[in-house]
Amino acid sequence: MAEILPTFSAPASIARAADVLQENVILRAVRGVPQQRLVHISQSRTPDDPINVQRDAPFERVVRPGDKQGFIHLVTDHDGPALAESMERLPCTLHELGLSVSTGRVVDFRAEQWLRAEPAAGAVPLIYPAHFDNGVIRWPKANSKKPNAVLHNIDSASLLVPGGWYVLVRRFSAKEERRRVVAAVFDPQAIPCEAVGFENHLNYFHERRKPLEPALAWGLSVFLNSTPLDSYFRQFNGHTQVNATDLRSLRYPARKTLISLGERLNGTPRTTRHRRVGGNNPQEALMANKRSRRIREAQAILTALGLPAEQRNERAALTLLALLDLTPNQSWDAAGDPLRGVTPIMEFAARHYGKRWKPNTRETVRRFTLHQFEQAGLVVVNPDQPDRPTNSPKYCYQIDPRALAVIQKFGSQEWDNVLRRYLADTQTLAQRYAQMRDMRRIPLDLGPGVKIKLSPGGQNALVEKIINEFCPRFTPGAKPVYVGDTDKKWACFDPDYLLALGVNVEEHGKMPDVVVHFTDKNRLVLIEAVTSHGPVNPKRLTELRALFAESNAGLVFVTAFLNPRGLLKYINEIAWETEVWVADDADHMIHFNGERFLGPY
Questions:
Q1: Bridge-partner residues for 398, per DSSP?
Q2: Over the range 132-157, which residues count as b (16 or more CB within 10 Å of their CB) and which as e?
């Protein structure tokens, strides 16, 4: 007889008491036993308490015959066997239902160049675990640390799935969370889209790579969120992950049962504690969809007009719609230009878009939306009385006539042309905040007939930006000496040129991602793409200085990032006296510890 010794019903308290970070299951078995019939399972609350639950289980109840995964089922209470038997008597496997479950395709750090913080033109929803809300998906999520959207283009298309009904399950949960299996329905009526991206921390159920039937999606979600399923799942899942393989190993109710369950509940999962958007009234659901679509369109307009991220959120979109006096049922060419103060703007959002802000939100709307709209030239302050005091109850805003003429063309064939002309005459607020400079941009000197072709994927997306964006700005006309490549050791390498500079490279593995010779100032610029091997930290700086110690050109060390989020992740590791460049703000570099302390340049 094998023995599992012991299991603990309060592992977190045990881990804290023992000052350990890792929990383990200790197995004891005898090798070579021809027939194993019973497994002894014991459980106690702490290592010092006497064992309070003991039972002998048939071996086939612990490891199911024919289970290719060989899951160990730990049934520690007397009700567990009955639960397991009832769950295993369910009639269908996932394959027999005609369904599949897959892991989300969007790995955010590999797709950073396509991610967007807020909904934008040309982008589709990107769903994270943070969008789960009591059995449904709420999107977009305001003030989220995670992106809300992903660009839909030829490069990102393989990461997306067609818009439609899906059931999503979180892949990770906290150890002491009430449920291990947490499911939610992606409802295309609430989130209309032609395609959608599911982040890698999610599993999604689909029907041969196509969306599910609505009733089937709701019924499947209810089953996955049920307490019996969760209790049974914990019998063989001993960690906090819920992998697609685990979900495939379950048995499910018949398809007609799931559909009947979804129809009977009318699309309201048992876990949902509040009424779904639009309720059960089709007219309310239609209006909710119109509101959601109009807000996303307003966000797309703000993005196109060059507003910074903080002024492209839902609050900014609703403020814009109020200043345009545009309801969900009107077309964009019906936009107007009424005079409105902060309180009337908030009242408009509540009356027409169901967004009821607290009274103390007035200052937030004023300081973080309207002030920036004014700076961007999007609105005019007190056009009827420019000298009106700030504390006047009649203080008001009006959309600028030039901006109104552009916005009225949104969605029409003229939109692109009028927008282009407007932006040509107006510096956007994002440009002003970024302090963009008119820099002399000269392409790299590749030599006659020399072309660099990088393989797709990996760090090459950032390497391409280094070559096409960084070098023309900061090392104009420089000679590329070495360019690394994801699929091969290098895309460009000129050892003779390096040797002429005093550098003899024998090990390509130690080379930075890009090396260029800035001939105007005789500097070797050594650039690391952070997506390959991390930043130029003190260890890497020491390695590069040793590798290029004999160089007769001055050395400059640069770490390149795709966006500010990556910089924040590594900021504590970056070595002093090195440079940082962020592709999203390509006109600027950050120098760690400049030559002048609090002195003007």
A1: 380
A2: beebbbebbbeeeebbbbbbbeeebe
What is the CA 400 to chain-centroid distance, rounded?
Answer: 35
DSSP output for 180-198: S--EEEE-TTTS--SEEEE
| Residues lower than pLDDT 50 in the chain | 1-18, 21-22, 267-281, 597-601
Q: What is the DSSP letter of 130?
A: G
**Residue 254's closest CA among 431, 97, 23?**
97
Model pLDDT, residue 298: 92
Residue 233: count other Cβ atoms within 10 Å of its Cβ: 19
Residue type, 284: E
What's the rounded Cα separation, in Å, for the pair 163 and 125? 9
Cβ atoms within 10 Å, residue 4: 20
| CA 69 – CA 456 distance, rounded (Å) | 35
Alpha-carbon distance 303 to 312, whole Å? 6
DSSP 559: E
106's tokens = 């969007």
pLDDT at 269: 46
Q: How far is Cα 14 from Cα 244, in angstroms, rounded to an integer?
A: 30
Tally of residues, the chain: 601
Distance, CA of 482 to CA of 529 (rounded, Å): 13
pLDDT at 599: 46
Residues 375, 432: Cα–Cα separation, whole Å: 9
Retrieve residue 362's tokens.
Answer: 């007035």
The answer to whether the pTM exceeds 0.85 is no
Beta-strand relationship, 92-93 and 195-198: unpaired
Measured in degrees and rounded to the nearest 5, phi and psi for residue 24 equal -130, 150
Cα dihedral 495, 500, 504, 506, rounded to 10, equals 10
H runs (alpha helix) in 466-514: 471-474, 495-500
* Residues 601, 596: Cα–Cα separation, whole Å: 8
Distance between CA atoms of residues 332 and 408, nearest Å = 5
Tokens 């005609």 locate to 98
Rounded to whole angstroms, the Cα distance separating 47 from 434 reads: 59
* Closest alpha carbon to 104 in 86, 71, 127: 127
Q: Locate the DSSP E strands across 352-420.
A: 379-381, 397-399
User: How far are the Cα atoms of 286, 290, 294, 585 from residue 283, in angstroms, in the given order?
Assistant: 5, 11, 17, 45
Question: Looking at residue 272, what is its pLDDT?
Answer: 38
Sheet architecture: strand order including 195-198 = 115-116, 149-151, 123-127, 195-198, 160-162
Report CA Rg, the chain: 30
Per-residue DSSP letter, 361: G
